[in-house]
Here is the input.
Amino acid sequence: MKKRVRKWASLTISGAVIALLAAGCSGGGSESKSSGAGAAQGGASPSAATSAGFAYDGKGPVTDKPGTLKILATNSWYNNVDLAKAPIVQEIAKRAGVTVDWELLAPGTYQDAINPRLAAGRDLPDIVYNTDQDQTMKNIQAGLFVPLNEYIDKYGVNVKKMFEKYPDLKASLTTPDGKIYYLPQLAVTKNYMPLWMVNVKWLEKLSLGEPATLDEFTEMLRKFKTGDPNGNGKADEIPMTMDPKFLGMAFGTSFGLDLSNLFYADDGGKVHYSYYEPAYKEYLAYLNGLYKEGLLESDYASTTSDQVTSKFSQDISGVTFNFSWHQSMTYSPLYKDYDPSKPLIKGIAPLKGPHGDAFYLGRNPITGIFGVSKDAKDPELAFKFLDYASSEEAKEIYAWGLEGQTYTVADGKKQFTEQGKDNDFIQQFGINPVNMPIEQSVDATDVLVAPWHAQLDKEMEKYIKPPYPFIYALAEEASVENTIMPDITTYTTEMEAKFITGKESLDNFDKYLGTLKSMGIEDVLKGRQAQYDRYLAAGK
Here is the structure.
């Protein structure tokens, strides 16, 4: 397994719902340079795009004079989509009263493409989008982006509402010296999250209830393996299958661990490294037991998401762990006898572990950041555009599109049109455009999935636990972590595979802990603790 397996940010979803929950991923994405609604004709002096008597109130337009902004951001994940020409993106610029000169680059290589330009620090566009959240404040310390506090105080009508709605968001975006340099792009944090899914018909065939504990789960897997739940008379059942990037998230929480984000804070505010905890040994012992019994696939580390789907389509696997939306949007429809009014592949509550831990992990809300560059010709106009683009009005357009084209309203409720349900059409239309400060919509997803699925999602909310937050690191903290963590991550990844498969005895776990200590994990934890303490203070 590679290091990326543990990155929660790397967990992506695909298909029609992606357009609403994660902005989609298909192919390498496209590039579009200077293809927006007009090109910049020189720069305006500060506030030149606004008359003295004009007062921005959080709604469009943001100015009463012609204004132009250059914006560098990602293009769509779909190769045939140019977001600069997408109706949704053009509508936002139109309502803002601003001409945008877009430079949109392919998302798959976006950060690598812009890093040299950031390092050069010259001739930056007015607004720059980053997928790298600048946790070590390298770009901030280089003076590439202007602090936004004054603009937020004066013009941040929508930003203030966003911070009131999500107090932790403000804490994450506040640097140790109290300044805010970036505005966020937001993901859903507790809806349609990854969870356990089981084949209901297999449970019914074997007269089993939904497992509530790890012990019950193990017993269910054993019966799935030997009880011929697919009824074909063959011993071809693979009890459980999943993409290996979900393994730690699937089982770690039953032992109180966050193996996806590596670190977590307990109720007392103490920061822990999940792979340096006694409970991690229990996690490894449990998975080693599954591996020995053949309940965890022998090739679990190389299983792909396509293989998981194939196993369900053949009705030879009964359990997986994946993003919730797969229940009614991918897996259940694979079965000829699927009745959309009730689940076939169904999400269940988290499994209670040996110490009573039972939760699912939520997602950090920030998926990307927008900064106003030091080279902005009119930073006030740039901020006002970002503030309006972060408004509820704009976010409704991102999620639903335009009334009469992608959705209609009946009895006060929005419903997607047939075009709005067509993934190719809505991608071209610019649904949830990744070049804008979007906030993914739960409501828009609820109307796409089966009714039972939307209801189940709300029932699962109470089990979602927030992950370790994004927090800025001081230079010295970043230096320590950047020096130490790459080797530690490589070591823990290699050792986890050895412990699970039995190539390394768990009798050597204390030796493993000693190696982590000698590699400097406690120095990293010291820095992480200081960061978390600052985060708590910033949120007060």
About this structure: The first strand starts at residue 32 and ends at 33. Residues 44 and 463 are 51 Å apart (CA to CA).
